[in-house]
Amino acid sequence: MSVKPDVKPARPWFSAGPTAKRAGYALGGLPSDLLGRGIRAPEVVERFAHGLRLTREVLEVPDSHVMLYTPGSDTGAVEAALWGMLGARPVQVVAYENFGLTWLADVKDHLGLEPEALTAPWGELPDLSRADWSRDVIFPWNGTTSGVRVPDADWIADDREGLAICDATSAAFAMPLPYDKLDVVTFSFQKALGGEAGIGVMVLSPRAVERLDTYRPDRPIPKLLRLTDGKGFDRALADGVAINTFSVLTIEDWIDALDWARDIGGLSELIRRTDANYAALAAWVEKTDWIDFLPERPEIRSTTSVCLKFADPRVTGLDEKGQKAFVTRFKALLEGEAAVFDMEPHRNAPPGLRLWCGCTVETADVVAATPWLEWAFETAANTVG
User: Fold this and answer.
1) For residue 167, which phi and psi values (nearest 5 degrees)?
2) Which residues does the chain have with pLDDT short of 70?
3) pTM over 0.85
């Protein structure tokens, strides 16, 4: 059995959602004067609008694009786009991990459309040259559950006829997003900035707003997903008005995260911090023989939701049930020591490890976590069989 490390990460939170809070965060530091006020009170609406303005500033969203909140985190934001916009043109779905596959199933089974699917095995990307921009194309920028991201936006046509609908929930605030190439961008509070769950954000290009203004789907749209009023796109949503009752405390928590992000240097610093965390973990993976990246190609590896696979025959020789049991044992060892929390992969992903390396994680904690991963692996592997 390997020797237990002496030093633990100061902040041992590596969950891919909700992600770690910023260093120094304190719930008691959030303003509480608007708690208990009505969601339509002018002061509350202005606070929500302030959150959108800060989000735009930190993400460097162009003024040509509008922003709004949706219920249901990123899932609600994506679903609002699917239900409210699809059907005007043929549809293509790029599905290479759990959520892309979910959007594919929703478009086909619930909206009753006939999408073309571009799929790939876990750890790979589909052939993006097959993207058909006469269609509306739905895709994740970064596959949270597979550790795969698109390497760039070169495959997105500038003269596209359809909409580019991008699920960017584990890419926003961590990777550059080319808004001139994207018509719908969605994300949630709970990913890259460590906000609380339940609220999503949509960024809409002028082309996406035009779709909402001019297209009426031949289907009833649930109120929670409805982005239009009797005239087209509901412009009030872009002013901070909520579709339904949102948590004011969650908005204050989000504003706290945005203030921190702005004050430390904005988007470029958030990306730098993410890249530094990823580099620290990648350096350990490269020198460790029992673990490897799930995506084999470096250019498509996520820098936020880093997904790893086992490379030791003591584990790879087990069937899937045995490997999942090994991950459970691995996780229990780490969490029993309060050394690394929530390092397991998504339930539908291949057995392995997943560690969040976004900007709210400290690089020193990534470095401190790796000896604990080695200890947990050797301890668990020595009990196999």
Assistant:
1) -80, 105
2) 1, 385
3) yes
